[in-house]
Amino acid sequence: MAEMRLQGKVALVTGAATGMGAAIAKLFAAEGARVAVNYRASEVEAREVVKQISEQGGEAVAVQADVAVESEVARMVASIDERWGRLDILVNNAGWSQVVSHGDLDALTDEIWDRTLSVNLKAPFYCVRQAVGLMRRSGGGVVVNNSSASAWHAAGSSIAYSAAKAGVVNMTKSLARALAPEIRVNAFAPGLVETRFAGWPQSAFERGRETALLGDLVSVEEVAQTALFLAAEASGMTGETLLVDGGKTNLGTKPKV
Asked: Which of these, 78, 172, 156, 178, lies nearest to 124 by C-alpha position?
């Protein structure tokens, strides 16, 4: 039996009730980590993730917090400290977006801007700021941020979302420099992944599959494997962002025959 790569570690995964976050939480638990499954409103789904982890012999707990509110993040980290007394891995996965046509500038309201930046850019910073003390007391650790391929191609769900995710790439570098050598900070940048995020219509996923170089969209499980690599394997990397988009950003789409 292969050695579990996260045995003895404690991980916090934000936005872990569904989609990529749920896949990351379950994979980390399968690799031996005790996992705090953060959610804001999806309590039923978060508790289902915890149940699935428990049924597989892992240990997890659902922790409610709006990560865009720093006082709630502080409470969440304190609860992890009280329960397990350490924190080794922080995965800043929580995100929010609303599809707004890039050409419809008037539709990109202040409300959308503020929520987009709060959840996608400010929240990861809040989580790092609140977690870093416990991580250092634990002997160091790893931060893994969820960015987006839209940080490169600027064609995501909205201009605000693309800008926020580009900010995550830059902030990953800044935090990597600031927290070295005790804490490594890296990011992954998914392309189009079929989840309920942002409310994309099914037709968007179907179009993506038709032109995917690798024949299909990247799955949540493949994204989770990238997060695991950054958390468990990439000991010589910090300040990096890995694209996980089936080659689309660098190579384009499948050519028509």
From this structure: 172
Per-residue confidence (pLDDT) for residue 8, from 0 to 100: 96
Rounded-to-5 percentages of helix, strand, coil across the chain: 50, 15, 35
User: In the beta sheet, which residues pair with residue 242?
Assistant: 188
Right CATH for 10-246 from 1.10.10.60, 3.60.15.10, 3.40.50.720, 3.40.50.2300: 3.40.50.720
**Residue 25 contacts residue 10 (beta carbons within 8 Å):** no
Q: Does the pLDDT of residue 165 top 60, yes or no?
A: yes
Query: What proportion of the chain, given as a percentage, has pLDDT over 90?
Result: 84
**CA dist., res. 235 & res. 4, Å (int):** 16
pTM tops 0.70: yes
Report d(CA 188, CA 149) in Å as an integer. 9
Q: Which residues contact 86 (CB under 8 A, 6 or more apart)?
A: 10, 134, 137, 138
**Running DSSP on this structure, what letter comes out for residue 184?**
E
Amino acid at 176: A
Token pair in block for residue 185: 């900070």
Report pLDDT for 105: 97
| Measured distance CA(152)–CA(119) in Å, rounded | 20
Among candidate residues 28, 125, 161, 188, the one labeled active-site is 161
By percentage, how much of the chain surpasses pLDDT 70?
Answer: 96
Catalytic site includes residue 161? yes
For tokens 């839209």, name the residue. 150
Q: Which residue has the tokens 């910073």?
A: 125
Distance CA 165, CA 128 (A): 16
160: number of Cβ within 10 Å: 22
Name the residue ranges covered by the structural domains of the chain: 10-246
